Amino acid sequence: MRYPALYSVILSFPLLASCKSTVDQPQSNIPPSSTQQATTPEWLAGDHHIHGKYSARWDWSTTPPTPILRGDAQYATAIYAQMAKHHNLSWMVTTDHGGPAHSKVNLHQAYPELVASREATPEVLQFYGMEFDTPGARHCSLIIPHTANEAEQLFRIEKNFNRREVEPNSVPRDTNAFMLKALKSMQAEKDKPLLIVNHPARLADKLASFKKVTPEKLKGWQDAAPDVVIGMEGAPGHQANALNPNGSIKKSGKRGGYDHFPTMGGFDQMTAIVGGVWDRMLSEGRHWWITAASDSHMHYTEGRTDFWPGEYSKTYVFANKQYADIMQAMRDGKIFVTTGDLIDSLSVEVKSNANLTANIGETIAITSGGDATVRIRFHDPDNHNFGRQNPKVERVDVIIGNVTSGDEPDVAPVVHRFTPDKWRVDGQYGVIEISLNDIQQGHYIRVRGTNNADELEPEIDPPGEDPWSDLWFYSNPVFIILN
């Protein structure tokens, strides 16, 4: 879809010209309302992986190399904020790529533009961050806490640890040992950032054949910085790769830019396969969360592969609309994700026979031999999404796995499948209930749903698949532990 009228409004903003200037000492922009105003927790949609014009390419004929702005991505931060607002997002994160001495580009150019964009579009909370060029691996979304020192904090982390900061001599930094050093430094920060692993299995050439990013590395990273490394993109960006600029299908286009082993229902194989990497992480009791993002560089209507933030993928966080609360809710796993606005609200409540409850991202303790009830409520909005369709949830799967003390899960997760005739309707919500009896060990419970009832499991996405025809939502887990 094209947005000529909205474009004209955005491009007329006076602040875009002022953002081109550089400053020596960027000033933070923290409105009192963003940190002090009491609000009610709700599901807030956002996007943590967005590239603007400071995702540069480089002129290697100069010493040092000169950044070429708009080299890899096109838009100013203010445009993204306006488009995020248009697509019903409450928060976003700017995550430009790094490069040689890019820390100075972020500090002196990207950050002042972010400050101006916050003032222009206060309805969208705009976090500062970058796509961290991960030592010994690929990419992660690095999200910086919203404080008076946010500009200096990112400058320091990028300068000291970003793999590409020292190109063309990045080899000494390109090791997992250096990544662990970086993570231990981040874990020691007073205001700890967040790190989400982006498109983790994009380099895999077949099922479970992981390159650069492996389950072993993921576990090691979280062990080194448990308050920083919180999870991975379940649904990667570049989902418009199979769309031509006029919206027709490009038969050669592969969703997510996964050119080797494809996505499955638009999700990375580490998430999509029951009993796969994600379930094995959860079976260890790890608080390993999934997200969804646009990875937007340039909109598909202008010849690239991307949707706008929130146009197709959304990460919902249950929080007050405040920077600190959103960040803490992400750390706590109070997250569900959806594509194509299939749903916009989700509850996965576990209630014990002692009337204790836990929901998405939480843990409930139950006496051995006790019972519990799982109650799922989801809202399928009765309106058109940004693909001009009104998709319906045709199946919901409840996945229950064991939490074990060993390296491997001793029992594969159980999947309960529900079609519309198997759930009840409560106003605008679908409701599903499951009883768990005589609980003898720890469990995790997660939920997913789709508009495609014919696929019992997410199937490999073929080239040329219309992303709007194959939609899914996923919850993060609720954990049960024994007293």
From TrEMBL:
Residues 1-17 form the signal peptide. Transmembrane segments: none annotated. Keywords: Signal. Gene3D superfamilies: Metal-dependent hydrolases (3.20.20.140). InterPro entries: Pol/histidinol_Pase-like (IPR016195). SUPFAM superfamilies: PHP domain-like. This is Phosphoesterase. The lineage of its organism: Bacteria, Pseudomonadati, Pseudomonadota, Gammaproteobacteria, Alteromonadales.
